[in-house]
Amino acid sequence: MRGPFSSVRAKASLGATAVVAVALVAAGVAVLLSLRVNLTDQADRAADRAAREVALEIASAAPDRTPYAELELPDAEDHPVRVTDEDGRTLALSEDLQRIDGTAVPPAGKKAPNPSEADDDNKDDSWDDTGNDDDGGGHGSHGGDGGRDHPEDDDPAVGEIDDTTDYREGTATVDGATGAYRFATVEATDRSGRTVLVHAGATLADRESALNTTGAAMLLGLPVLLLVVGGVTWLVTRRALRPVEGIRGEMAAITASTDLSRRVPEPATRDEVARLARTTNETLAALEAAVDRQRRFVADASHELRSPIASLRTQLEVGHAHPGLLDVPGAVADTVRLQQLAGDLLMLARLDAGERPGTARTDLGALVREEAAQRPRDRFPVTVRTAEGCDVLGSRAQLARVLGNLLDNAQRHAAGSVEASVRREGGWVVLAVADDGAGVPEAERERIFERFVRLDEARSRDDGGAGLGLAIARDIAERHNGTLTTTQPPTGGALFELRLPPPPDH
User: Fold this and answer.
1) How far apart are CA 285 and CA 20, in angstroms?
2) pTM over 0.85
3) Is-contact 267 277, C-beta < 8 A?
4) In 3D, which of 282, 300, 280, 303 has the Cα closest to residue 292?
5) Which CATH class name applies to 272-352?
6) Using CA atoms, how far apart are residues 185 and 50, in angstroms rounded to an integer?
7) Which residues, listed in sequence order, are joined to residue 166 by a DSSP beta bridge?
8) Is the separation of the CB atoms in 280 and 251 below 8 Å?
9) Dihedral over alpha carbons 464, 466, 470, 471 (to 10 degrees)
10) Which SS3 state, helix, strand or coil, does residue 498 take?
11) For 328, phi and psi rounded to 5 degrees?
12) Calpha distance 169→51 (Å, rounded)
């Protein structure tokens, strides 16, 4: 039962749409990840730049003054800045900065709350500047935890800034508005020898906006693009398969009408469909020829069978009415002829059915000698000449049938002698049967191998065959990967040569 997606067009459209969908989703994820990384790097650079500007101002200040209350800090909305000492006390922070990561900012000079000492409402890692939060990883060798002890040999020298920077993501509340930020932490040592931590943030609003906009555009554009891909694939496949439908319809009409002379339409293109149409027409032509041959074969077989059967019936009816007039030898001859014809027809039927020869090794010379010795009633004795080492592979019975048919043909046309020989010639084993008769006209040398074909001379003879012997012989030769041809030797008469390949080890 055909389903809605059983057609080639539907399968091709769904397949193409699925492949494009997977590719677009993968590309979209890659684009979003790449965009996130790039925008995060931009925020890192902005935060690092802001932190180092403040750190540079601290490191370059005169040692006899306290610069922290007078630091020129950037706008808190763009770059919230908090400066702490190594004990976590806030030395300076941006104006209007109220919270970082959801924890209230203590006033200047106050130590950040210790999470282990604060109550449940105030427990938070907002003052943990080491970059060990869930959203971002730290870079560099230093952290920025206010309560963290730093070995003196890790601190920058007086008036210098540490080369490393730690990064993390978090939130900051500026003037009542909370936003996502990327924080950079830099260590610096002022002229008085105090080491401080500068925490500066860069807003991630642009990153989140870009990611949201890009994601929304992808979500909106993906269905539209998939519909376009599916529709185009459907139309293209429909156009490409239109000739196939024409071929199918014509084949259905041929099947219904049994008219094998009809042919399917061949498109003018040179693609696979055009080759399919040509191959289909070639198959129809071969099938038509095979059916015609079969019809001619049946008609000829019926004609050939009708004669001996009618003759035998007439003789039996006469013998029944007048026993003294019964021609027993004639009835026996007709019966033998009928038996031979039935055997030939049975052999042709087996050959047409694709019966393959065996692979047994047969000495062709010994076969010729044995078959010639079993023909004592021939009109002329068969002269046999064979060479050694003339083995072939195949069915001994079928090869004997070929030899018998060639000898029968030679006996019917010979004037006084028949010769059979076996030899090696090049890469072939050659069985030759020659007679000294009138020979075969050059124009008829291929036609005599067709079924039920007899030359006029043969038709005039009472002992002529049905015209199947040579056809059977050639079919058997071809099924043994060999050839059977006829020529006229210089001495006259007819020469039939069967060429067969030797076994592989010869």
Assistant:
1) 43
2) no
3) yes
4) 300
5) mainly alpha
6) 10
7) 185
8) yes
9) 170
10) strand
11) -65, -50
12) 15
Residues 50 and 202 sit within 8 Å (Cβ to Cβ): yes
Q: Which CATH superfamily is domain 361-500 in?
A: Histidine kinase-like ATPase, C-terminal domain (3.30.565.10)
Distance of CA 322 to the CA centre of its chain: 79
Three-state secondary structure readout of 247-283 = HHHHHHHHHHHCCCCCCCCCCCCCCHHHHHHHHHHHH
Domain ranges of the chain: 1-259, 272-352, 361-500
Q: Which residue pairs from 63-68 have beta carbons closer than 8 angstroms and sit at least 24 positions apart in sequence?
A: 63/190, 63/191, 63/192, 67/190, 68/92, 68/108
Name, in order, each residue with C-beta under 8 angstroms of 20's C-beta and a sequence gap of 6 or more: 225, 226, 229
Beta-sheet strand order (sheet of 81-85)? 90-93, 81-85, 195-203, 177-189, 166-174, 97-100, 103-104
The three-state DSSP-derived secondary structure of 145-207 is CCCCCCCHHHCCCCCCECCCCEEEEEEEEECCEEEEEEEEEEEEECCCCCEEEEEEEEECHHH
How far is residue 202's CA from residue 345's CA, in Å, rounded to a whole number?
Answer: 99
pLDDT per residue rounded down to tens, the chain (506 residues):
455 556 777 888 888 889 989 999 999 999 999 999 999 999 999 999 999 999 898 888 776 665 687 788 888 888 899 998 888 888 888 888 888 875 555 555 555 444 334 334 433 444 444 333 434 444 443 333 433 344 444 677 777 888 899 999 989 988 888 889 999 999 998 888 888 999 999 999 889 999 999 999 988 988 999 899 888 888 888 887 888 888 888 888 888 888 888 888 888 888 888 888 899 999 999 888 888 877 877 777 777 777 778 878 888 888 888 887 777 787 787 787 788 778 877 887 777 777 777 788 999 999 999 999 999 888 999 999 999 889 999 999 899 999 999 999 999 999 999 999 999 998 899 999 999 998 899 888 898 998 877 765 444 434 556 678 898 899 999 999 999 999 998 888 999 999 999 998 75
DSSP one-letter code for 417: -
Instruction: Calculate the alpha carbon distances from 36 to 27, 31, 47, 168, 459 in Å.
Output: 14, 8, 16, 15, 97
Quick one: tokens of 391? 């083995």
